[in-house]
Amino acid sequence: MIRAWSAPSAGAKFEQISYDPGPMKGDDVEIDVMACGLCHSDLSLWADEWGISQYPLTPGHEVVGKITQVGDNVTHLKPGDTVGVGWFSRSCLTCDPCMHGDHNMCGSVEQIAVGRHGGFAEKVRVQASWANKLPDGVKPEDAGPLFCGGITVFNPIVQMGVKPTDKVGVVGIGGLGHLAVQFLNAWGCEVTAFTSTGAKAEEAKKLGAHRIVDSRSEEALQAEAGRFDFILTTVAVDLNWQLYLNALGPRGRLHTVGIPPNAIPAHAFQLLSNQRSVSGSPLGSPATIRDMLDFCARHDISPMVERMPMSQIDAAMDKLKNGSPRYRIVLDNDFS
Q1: CA–CA separation, 46 vs 268, rounded Å?
Q2: pLDDT of 26 higher than 90
Q3: Which of 176, 192, 212, 272 suits 227 as a labelling partner, its CA being 20 to 30 A distant?
């Protein structure tokens, strides 16, 4: 039996439960959870904002822990290895996307906390291909947020061909944005942070932003017209999309990894005139996650985290709901 923290219904307080994970599959690994990051997506699942939650719900998709068991077919991992797991926990490995290395776009990809129990637990089981071993130089205690927030912003840098010579804007300096700034600075880009918070502006500079733009000032946004090769928006709110599109230079791209409540309006003429584009992306494949981890180790990149015991998950959810973490909460396993 595995103990876990689960919500019995949407928005309800968490309760400790025990569940039977069933027999080990040949390609499974079982992981003793050391810690699990708390992401806004966990809040969305808990509240059933997306209409996909099943209760009792055990969220948690930024898991770091040590492998205790491996399935009969697993050869590349062994008990004692420290690994991380993110939003995805299984893919078919045989469809066209998987065979092309795009496991994250597999039509039958399994989400670790949707229809099954996630990482706010003492143990978790996943397909071995989605458990990534941590390289030397990545601290296990802080690494959890890399497996969702980190790969969410690293993946588009790779997929969209962002170049070291590019001028890049990051909208929103939070759990995702504070990592995006670090990645892009190390990538070699000129990095502009769009933020409405003065305190975050100073932190963004320390993290590697070269410039700061007040995201609430239309005048400041208008002054950025034609500047950017790539703008990455990490926020889940509606923006003045026309001004951000206008801030793109020729062949510029506005890319979202946040999920705003309404559609992004883009007039065809605004796109055609300078060959601009609007795009989005999911989290990355196992191979891209490994590249991100190596990049973090090489450039000493890590999330800024606040630590709380997993048993205080209700208080942690409240803190996240009120927008107060700097910048990611990590829950330490304290099952006795």
Answers
A1: 38
A2: yes
A3: 176
Q: What values do phi and psi take at 5, rounded to 5?
A: -100, 120
Residue 291 falls inside a structural domain: no
128 in Cβ contact with 77 (< 8 Å): yes
- The pLDDT, as a whole number, for residue 322 is 87
Residues in the chain: 336
Token pair of 311, please?
């048993």
In b/e form, how buried is each residue of 108-120, taking b as 16+ CB within 10 angstroms?
ebbbbbbebbbbb
Among 236, 265, 280, give the residue marking a domain's end: 280
3-class DSSP state of 320: helix
Cβ neighbours, 10 Å, residue 294: 13
Residue span of the structural domain in which 190 resides: 150-280
Q: Which residue has better confidence, 197 or 14?
A: 14
Q: Are both 224 and 122 inside the same structural domain? A: no
Is 298 a domain residue? no
Rg value, the chain, Cα: 20
Structure tokens at 81: 């290895």
Strands 63-70 and 28-38: what pairing? antiparallel
Q: How, if at all, do strands 15-19 and 28-38 pair?
A: unpaired
The pLDDT of 5-22, averaged and rounded, is 96
Average confidence (pLDDT) over 198-204 = 86
In a shared domain, residues 160 and 251: yes
Enter the tokens of residue 272: 């055609």
Residue with token string 């048993």: 311
CA distance 229 to 201: 21
